Amino acid sequence: MSVGFATLLYKEVLRFWKVSFQTVAAPVLTALLYLMIFSHVLESQVRVHGVVYTAFLIPGLVMMSALQNAFANSSSSLIQSKVTGSVVFVLLPPISYVEFYLAYVVAAVLRGLMVGIGVLLVTSWFAVPTFVAPGWILAFIVLGGGIMGTLGMVAGIWADKFDQLAAFQNFLVMPLTMLSGVFYSIHSLPAFWQQVSHFNPVFYMIDGFRYGFFGVSDVDPQTSLAVVGATFLIVSAATLILLRSGYKLRS
Prior knowledge:
Elements: H1 3-17, H2 20-42, E1 47-48, E2 51-52, H3 53-84, H4 87-91, H5 97-123, H6 134-158, H7 162-178, H8 191-197, H9 201-214, H10 221-245
């Protein structure tokens, strides 16, 4: 990769790291509050796959926080650059659209990983996590972060103002993540909603990620990995086409 890619990646990482109290610590606190509230209410009433509810909830919160913050990183960076007009300073240097894409997505994945690790560390006070298959954990959080970071780029490219970006997040990203099995097993849902859940790619990210902790899941992890991998390839290809055309960036 070129010096331009390394510089842009450094800029994107530095951008969120300089305000890490807001971009990393705040999401960790939010996840901790979710855990305290839900585990207090449901701990004695719910067991999923033989796992106590608090332990079941932790991987879901880790993954949800990582995904939402990966999306937030790339989307907020692009929309801020467009609104302030500083995007021109990123587009003028001889950086290929592939390097442009990789710099934003890698930075988004790194932020997601940092938030996820932070959530895991603070929530382990409530239930010591097990790591049955660490390779699955890493694969799903990296691919999931890549997907959401890519969707963040799409949102940032498409949106012309912050209100449009907020609509994209509130009406697409939030429902996908909140209704993906973070707080429940889909087997607890009526048959119709179980089927609907299988059309949500985030469900496979959460379910496969949770498998890495407990060795149990609602769907075979290989199926989940195939769905997540295919989703990543599709959204990446679509985003690269947008970048190559210069849609709403160069025109």
